[in-house]
Amino acid sequence: MKYVRLFLLSAILSIVALAVQAQSARLKAANKQFENLAYVNAARAYEDFLRLDKKKDPAEVQEAYTKLGYSYRALQDTKNAERIYADLIREFPETDSKNYLYYAQALAANGKYRDSQKLYSKYGEKQNEDLRGRKFTVSYMDMNRFFQDSSSYKVEFLPVNSRQADFSPMYYQNGLAFVSARDETGPVKRVFGWNQTPFLDLYFYPDTAELQNNAELAARAASLGGSNATADAVELAPVEEKSLSKTELFSRTLNTKYHEGPMTFFKDQSRIIFTRNNTAKGKGGKSNDGIRKLKLYIAENAKGSWQKVEELPFCSNDYSVGHPALSPDDTKLYFVSDMPGGFGGTDIYVVEFKDGQWSSPVNMGKEINTEGNEMFPFVDENSNLYFSSDGHEGLGGLDLFYAELREGIAFKGVQNMGYPINSEKDDFGLITTKNRTSGYFSSNRKRGVSDDNIYSFRRTCKQLNIFVYDAKTSEPIAVADVRVIKAGVNQDLRFTGVDGKTGFCVDANVDYEFKAIKEGYSPNSIRFSTMTQSERPVMTVSIYLEKSENTLVKGTVKTEVNQQPAPGVTVTLRNDKDKSEQQVVTGTDGKYEFEMKPGAPYTLTTQKNRYTANSEQIPKMKAGKNPKLIEKQQGIYGEGDVFELKNIYYDYNKFFIRPDAARELDHLAVLLKKYPEMKIELRSHTDSRANDAYNLQLSTYRARATVDYLVNHGIDPSRLDAQGYGETEILNGCTDEVACPESKHQKNRRTEFKIVSVQ
């Protein structure tokens, strides 16, 4: 199902069309199957033409080889693709340069890396603008980097897999939702002409814990069966049948007669975004080249049934959009598209989602996207990106990659996840836990029953023990903070025990900094690299701290809208005397730690794009008299945040500011004076009594009254926008014809403010 996954149905238009005045009947028949995307039949017909037609025109032979190779490529038949491209290049060395690339890719997918390297080199000579030729040529000189962390992963075939394609798992409730081409129920079996397999639908397995247990049973059964495929099948059959019997259709309302593909869920799992063929009927559902492109749709779960299916606004009839992935806070949607203006076949894009509105798509840029195909994005709880690519250097086919994102940018490039997550075949559709300790992915590697299959993985810990000691006495220091810092960004924070020890699981190919912090001591750090692998199962480092009269400054940055820790905030402590600075970017816990010397004043600042910047003066400390610890809590306001003014209530049918409301508005005026660049929208609401038009007008008057109050207290009116929403946003179900007490109606007569901009 590789090219169904790629959804590059329009890619066939780039195949070199070789003009021939009079084609043979067999070649015409083969071309007709090829043009209809029926690659199984096309491959058969081209093989017949090349074998049976005695008097063949060289141009016809070249055309047949070109399209036959592409047909096998589309069917993921890499062995036959290798055979045909070898014949094509041997007989027609001046063929289009793309065929050298396809030959190199087929060789890599068959594990022939040295031969693949030679073909990539030739492709690079013929096509200077495409960097893949040079990158893969260099990469295949030394394959060791793809195997550095291989001992850390345990990969298991899942017994949920069927005899057809199963791929793209996604966490849902306590189970896994996934895509499958397993046989349809009912008397009529519809198949996809491309490769003669059933259309893709969404399925669900309800219990990942049971699935994992079954996978372990299956692994033990496979080990008992040895390498014999028949023995494997006999041992695995009972486990597979049990798991397959629990698999169910994800939704009868979402599955249609066309393809439904990869999906993602909002955090509360009440909404789904999923991939589907354009469902518009007739010509309106097809592109100019007559193909039903893929689109993204959103649906809501209403009492256990998925309803209100709507197409997302940035989709098109003329290009495909699919493979959705939401950020942990539901504010960003990553997806894949072959829309015009990209870098390669398919690129990864991102849109923002705020107040129910979608922004325009933005390409993720050259750090992520290549001349090849990037697809199947997934964003973990740390907002870091996983995706598949055949354009970045890998083991063959699609490989899985990882990118740490900072403000949406892959600031350290991308990292191949290596063997055994990756293989010489296609590896894609990965989902994982926060620190990549376990997860699931898809692959069409040899272990699978047929086509694509879903695998689980677990990462065993590469243990690094850190000991913190007193530098003078060499005694262990208990309850010291040990912070992991990667590229200036705070990561995990651990605490030492009575033996001065704490531990971390470290990744391969990473430069770490470990910083030990304790009141009464100067912080100290040590760098540790896993760029070279150690054979030791457990590694040890020590950090020594010296007694100090300096002060520790510690704190947490939180978002004011929900009082949650704020990651990605740049916190700077500046010595105003010698102008030196200490700086760190907060991690998921929002915390920071610095050391402050006596005899100098300091300035503490916090900054994050599209959030308010704060600056606070810390007076200088006197030697011998300064506190050992100062704790500072910082709050930041973000664009789009909506705050309810708790006591801004109005009397029934009135819009005058009450005395209890004035006190709350005074606080808002102070906030606006603190942040002179901040602009806000005042949003007033009514209860449901009276008609809609009257309530809309009344709420508008209330919003204007709030603006007038703030203007009279020194706020520039250009920073304020009054909007009335009437009864359109009732909080507690007290809508028309619903009997509610006055106290509940009062809750709806409220005013909020929304931050429009902070700069």
How would the blueprint of this fold be written?
Blueprint: H1 2-6, H2 25-35, H3 39-52, H4 58-74, H5 78-91, H6 97-109, H7 113-126, H8 132-139, E1 153-157, E2 166-172, E3 175-180, E4 191-192, E5 197-198, E6 201-205, H9 208-225, H10 229-246, E7 248-249, E8 260-265, E9 271-277, E10 294-302, E11 305-311, E12 321-326, E13 332-337, E14 347-354, E15 357-358, E16 362-363, E17 374-379, E18 385-389, E19 399-403, E20 405-406, E21 409-410, E22 415-416, E23 427-432, E24 438-443, E25 453-459, E26 463-470, E27 481-486, E28 489-495, E29 501-505, E30 511-517, E31 524-529, E32 538-545, E33 551-559, E34 564-565, E35 570-575, E36 581-585, E37 591-596, E38 602-607, E39 614-618, E40 629-636, E41 642-644, H11 659-674, E42 679-684, H12 692-712, E43 720-724, H13 742-748, E44 751-757
Helix pairs in contact: 2-3, 2-4, 3-4, 4-5, 5-6, 6-7, 7-8, 9-10
